[in-house]
Design brief:
The protein is of the alpha+beta class and about 160 residues long. It has a single domain, classed as Gamma-glutamyl cyclotransferase-like (Hypothetical upf0131 protein ytfp, Roll), CATH 3.10.490. The chain is globular, with a radius of gyration of 15 Å.
Length: about 160
């Protein structure tokens, strides 16, 4: 299954711990969306990322190929308890992303990928630690430099 990561799951060490053996498909863009922090996480000490509709903006991330076991692990980490479950912290949806740099040398293309969307609850800025995890992943995967600069300028809770 294809999964689009745009938050802390960009961090290669975190993804290796959560989903050992995952495969990086490549760099992708979620058009007409922006990064937001609608949910406060006690584990991270601040807001955690989601995406929201925003004309003329884009969220950059990485598409991973994951197994069913990987998805089950991510469901647990993201607090996803099933479709429409009121106790879920995130919902899962399938969205269209534009693969712009495939790691296997294939052509850029649109694809459907699973994405986790945070439910709004106590929105706030991310912690420095959380933002640093996103930045580590963004730099590791060579997201566009303008996007990395925009991420780096995000105000933090601490």
């Amino acid at each position: 299954m294809l999964y689009f990561a745009y938050g802390s799951n960009l961090d290669p060490e975190q993804m290796q711990r959560r989903c050992p053996g995952h495969v990086v498909v490549g760099l992708a863009e979620l058009r007409e969306h922006k990064l937001v922090y609608p949910l406060t996480s006690h584990d991270w000490g601040g807001g955690v990322a989601s995406v929201a509709v925003a004309h003329t903006e884009s969220v950059w991330g990485i598409v991973y190929e994951l197994t069913d076991a990987h998805i089950a692990a991510l469901d647990a980490y993201e607090g996803y308890k099933g479709p429409g479950n009121e106790h879920s912290l995130y919902e899962r949806e399938t969205m269209s992303v534009h693969l712009t740099r495939a790691d296997d040398g294939s052509f850029p293309r649109r694809m459907q990928a699973l994405i986790y969307l945070a439910k709004a609850a106590n929105p706030g800025p991310p912690s420095r630690r959380y933002l640093d995890a996103i930045l580590r992943g963004a730099k590791h995967h060579k997201l566009p430099s303008e996007y990395i600069a925009k991420l780096a300028a995000t105000p933090t809770a601490d």
